[in-house]
Amino acid sequence: MKRAFAISVVAELSIALLLLHSDIKDFLWTHPWWHSFLVLVPTISVPILAALELVHSREANRLRADLGKRVARIGELQTELNTLQDERNKSLNKIAINTERRLSEADRNAAVLRKYLGKSAQVTEGANSWGSMGAVVAEVNDNNIATLFVPSGFASSQAFGQRVRCDKVQIVEEPVGSCPVQIHILERYGGPTSYGEAKSWEERSARSNAMQQVPHGRNVFAVSYRKDGTSTKRGVYIYQSTDGSPNYSLVAFEDLEKPQTTAWYLPKIEIEKRFAILQLEWLNSGWRYDGGSGSGPLFLLTRP
Question: How crowded is residue 25: how many other Cβ atoms within 10 Å of its Cβ?
């Protein structure tokens, strides 16, 4: 709207100048002072414009000087910021170093044992050895508790696992026979866990018939064993079959106050062999004969 109005005004002035051109020319010709005024206008305007330019120049210089100061201050602030960041980083590094968790003996031993998972280790405990076949380093959990597994076979009549704290063992990374590492147990963590006749750590959950309930007929033999320094008693019960077959059931207890831990249902001669092997293992582990009764037709030798 304003633009249209301005255009209309300019158009009207132009038309008026064209229509009044002769009158304007005569007026200027009869009044010569207008000529002097028109000549004087540039002379007056030049100093005025120069003065205005000087004022503007001074203001621009002032603004440029102020901008330079501000830029310099920004540089100073950036330098101070960089210094503060460097000091912060140094402080964080010191905090990280001071708060870094120190590796305990259990952590170090656990790391070593994890290198030998699934491999056999020669195991000693006090003055005794677990045998030339040693035990398998079965697992090491997040609490630094390792499980040593002995499979059923030549070294033991039944498979078992024994847990130990990693800070309660001494480890020597030197091979002995087929075992690439040596472990000396200073203290056990709990008692052993029986895995029946498992031949490997992976088979431990099967436990075959060694951990199953066997048929119980008439009891024909009972014997118990004790160990100095403990009130726990181990025992063996042997029963006749319930179906009239020549088989017998042998049930072994790691603790007479708890459920059975090992059981077999086998012919007579196999039961006699199992009992002999089991008794020798217990005697070698410090358990002593503590009395028994009966034997029936079985050929069983007990060592006082």
Answer: 10
SS3 222: strand
Please determine, for residue 169, whether its predicted confidence score (pLDDT) is greater than 80.
yes
Identify the band that residue 49 occupies on the pLDDT scale cut at 50, 70 and 90: low
SS3 135: strand
Provide the pLDDT for residue 16. 60
Instruction: Answer for the pair 150, 135: CB distance below 8 angstroms, yes or no.
Output: yes
* Residue at a domain's end among 133, 165, 194: 194
What mean pLDDT do residues 246-257 have? 82
For the purposes of burial, counting CB atoms within 10 Å of the CB of 6, is it exposed (0-12), middle (13-18) or buried (19 or more)? exposed
Statement to judge: residues 185 and 217 lie in one domain: no
Burial 111-123 (b: 16+ CB within 10 A, else e): ebbeebeeebbbb
Given the DSSP bridges, would you call strands 135-140 and 169-172 parallel, antiparallel or unpaired? unpaired
**Residue 112 domain-assigned (yes or no):** yes
How many residues comprise the chain? 304
